[in-house]
């Protein structure tokens, strides 16, 4: 049964709009300087700080202070851990194999990866750092006030908006939106954020190494 509380809805809207706007401003500003930065560690550390301070910490504080719940329990980080990890690795490996087969096992980033391991780490950590706010927090919060598919669509739209300022075209944004829907469905079925986080990381890494 869906529960409606105008005060909670208003707070969630303000929080989400403010968070996304701050994130977009940060992304826009970072693009102005990132072109001159070639150090993998600097790029990795900057991305890590971006997600932690703009998404992870605010989400944790929201759940702890406003909702008065255990953030790890709410986000499904301590639920179905082993099964979630196993399913995530299994699906992720299938995706990795499919991508390699489709690209005829040509890995264009091989030499680049050997040069700086931080570029790999950046792709690996982005999985959980994006799944925590968009599937773990937003989708679950929205599902409190609307049906699963509506909440999944809305959270996937926010997920896509985050990539608008990236080097992606319209077709890529549609693909990102569809992937968001898929991740949301898997999260609902597995009830484990570990599963979608691992799938997300492996998918990003798979796409990155062939581009």
From TrEMBL:
Pfam families: Rce1-like (PF02517). Keywords: Membrane, Transmembrane, Transmembrane helix. GO terms for molecular function: endopeptidase activity. Residues 118-205 form the CAAX prenyl protease 2/Lysostaphin resistance protein A-like domain. The chain crosses the membrane at residues 12-29, 41-61, 81-101, 153-185, 191-210. One of its GO terms (biological process) is CAAX-box protein maturation. The keyword Transmembrane applies. This is CAAX prenyl protease 2/Lysostaphin resistance protein A-like domain-containing protein. The lineage of its organism: Bacteria, Bacillati, Bacillota, Clostridia, Eubacteriales.
